[in-house]
Amino acid sequence: MSIPELYQYYLSFPNICTDTRKIERNSLFFALRGENFDANAFAEQALEKGAAYAVIDNPDFKKSEKYLLVEDSLSTLQQLARYHRQQLKIPVIGLTGSNGKTTTKELINSVLSQKFKTLATKGNLNNHIGVPLTLLEIGNDVELAIVEMGANHQKEIELLCSICEPTHGLITNIGKAHLEGFGGIEGVKQGKGELYDFLQAHQGTVFVNDDSPALNEMLKTRNFVKLVKYGTDASNQVMGELLSNEPYLKIRWTYPRGTFEVQSQLTGIYNFENILGAIAIGLDFDLSPAQINAGISNYAPKNNRSQISKTEKNTVIGDYYNANPSSMVLAIDNIAQLKATKKVLILGDMFEVGESTAQEHLNVIRKALAYPFTQVIFIGKHFKEASSQVNALFFTDTDEAYNHLKHQRIEDSLVLVKGSRGMRLEKLMELL
Ligand SMILES: CC(=O)N[C@H]1[C@@H](OP(=O)(O)OP(=O)(O)OC[C@H]2O[C@@H](n3ccc(=O)[nH]c3=O)[C@H](O)[C@@H]2O)O[C@H](CO)[C@@H](O)[C@@H]1O[C@H](C)C(=O)N[C@@H](C)C(=O)N[C@H](CCC(=O)N[C@@H](CCC[C@@H](N)C(=O)O)C(=O)O)C(=O)O
Ligand SMILES: Nc1ncnc2c1ncn2[C@@H]1O[C@H](COP(=O)(O)OP(=O)(O)OP(=O)(O)O)[C@@H](O)[C@H]1O
Ligand SMILES: C[C@@H](N)C(=O)N[C@H](C)C(=O)O
């Protein structure tokens, strides 16, 4: 079946579903293969549960005209998304970067939705499956889309750009994330730079954080028809200044027509650049300063990314969606600067760091112990293997740490909980 033919089915049934556990009536089911299942085997169930059609790539499962047989379901999903994007005459803002993609995407969406009917990536659905699903959610009424693109190896951003065809783009930053798949920091630059390459080739607009030496270096070899720079230096089109972080960031920003201040609901100095990026994009899309500030101040994270919660015993900064050497160091510096009598760090292993795993874990241990924190707890085998200093607690896994904290409760403290998703540090929250 050709993509234009399949597109007619999509236009009649625009609700795409890939999971029979969450199937909706009249959806178009795509049978994907994953690490655990081959969803061709679930196609019948999808139809029984109310899907209008099931796209499959194994002829053995085709039982009626309700099964649409294609060569490869995943690649068909991607091609359908690209075809749909090409029918839409709207701007698409593509975002990638090592850290802060989801937060920046949410901020941009909060800002731009003050003026436009927007559609943004849900949560973190940013990969070769999530990006097509995001695009296929764009209905006729949407005026502008914000698409987050994630990657852990080369050519992934190139593929995602070829699907969502961004007209505007922003790389949040270059950091030590997914070093394993990218092959080191130069590999990160190359992989993330695929967004710049696409925008250069397609006359797109690029938003650049001028405070990042790595991003500035990446600009040297490229030319863009439109470049908007933001940062702390007055030479930028949008200049920002951090006014306070206690615990939420307050920012002053200046552009050629004036200076404004905004109070955010975000903690973490690293969020300064995320906010400034969203302001720069808001200005480029002709929002008023009042609309921009409303978008920034309305956004409150509810996604375990630097989320502050007051429990009965403590104030907790829950930051256990992910961790890598760059974001870990910034999170430690951030809590060190916040005001609190007692500060406790609970740090979990960082994944996908590659050959520098031992060194990077040791760096984090040294960094954390250089500050006079009340207590520092390290969880995971990488931390344990890197060192076991006497002035800190080391646990092999989260269950072991849980058993300890059950008996030695943390009280009246500001607690940072940060680690890679796979460490499942959220288990500890009920004890904090
Ligand atoms: C393929 C898929 O969508 N899997 C989801 C599924 O996993 P599960 O283990 O149950 O099954 P399989 O993957 O083996 O199944 C194949 C299909 O079978 C369906 N199915 C299964 C059982 C059943 O009873 N009925 C069924 O229909 C199933 O739905 C599959 O379609 O369910 C899990 C739980 O909900 C999902 O977590 C899993 O989703 C996978 C991980 C996925 O890739 N989802 C994307 C939509 C997505 O964008 N996920 C993001 C995470 C993105 C991410 O990690 N980004 C990285 C960078 C990108 C790296 C990239 N190279 C990569 O590897 O992804 C980043 O750092 O930001 C998210 O979930 O947040
Ligand atoms: N600009 C930034 N620089 C460094 N670290 C950051 C920055 N922004 C956020 N972080 C850190 O990364 C964590 C996750 O933020 P966010 O989800 O926005 O990033 P992400 O790049 O989308 O990651 P993921 O793709 O895993 O969701 C934050 O809680 C914070 O610790
Ligand atoms: C969950 C995934 N998006 C991610 O960020 N993985 C890294 C390795 C992490 O969990 O720290």
Automatic annotation (TrEMBL):
GO terms for biological process: cell division; cell wall organization; peptidoglycan biosynthetic process; regulation of cell shape. Its EC number is 6.3.2.10. Pathway: Cell wall biogenesis; peptidoglycan biosynthesis. It is found in: Cytoplasm. ATP binds at residues 97-103. Residues 96-281 form the Mur ligase central domain. Residues 305-421 form the Mur ligase C-terminal domain. Residues 16-60 form the Mur ligase N-terminal catalytic domain. One of its GO terms (molecular function) is UDP-N-acetylmuramoyl-tripeptide-D-alanyl-D-alanine ligase activity. It comes from the Bacteria. Keywords: ATP-binding, Cell cycle, Cell division, Cell shape, Cell wall biogenesis/degradation, Cytoplasm, Ligase, Nucleotide-binding, Peptidoglycan synthesis. Pfam families: Mur_ligase, Mur_ligase_C, Mur_ligase_M. It is an enzyme of class 6 (ligase). It catalyses: D-alanyl-D-alanine + UDP-N-acetyl-alpha-D-muramoyl-L-alanyl-gamma-D-glutamyl-meso-2,6-diaminopimelate + ATP = UDP-N-acetyl-alpha-D-muramoyl-L-alanyl-gamma-D-glutamyl-meso-2,6-diaminopimeloyl-D-alanyl-D-alanine + ADP + phosphate + H(+). InterPro entries: Mur-like_cat_sf, Mur_ligase_C, Mur_ligase_C_dom_sf, Mur_ligase_cen, Mur_ligase_N, MurCDEF_CellWall_CoF430Synth, MurE/MurF_N, UDP-N-AcMur_synth. GO terms for cellular component: cytoplasm. The keyword Lipoprotein does not apply. Involved in cell wall formation. Catalyzes the final step in the synthesis of UDP-N-acetylmuramoyl-pentapeptide, the precursor of murein. PANTHER family: UDP-N-ACETYLMURAMOYL-TRIPEPTIDE--D-ALANYL-D-ALANINE LIGASE. Belongs to the MurCDEF family. MurF subfamily. This is UDP-N-acetylmuramoyl-tripeptide--D-alanyl-D-alanine ligase. The lineage of its organism: Bacteria, Pseudomonadati, Bacteroidota, Sphingobacteriia, Sphingobacteriales.
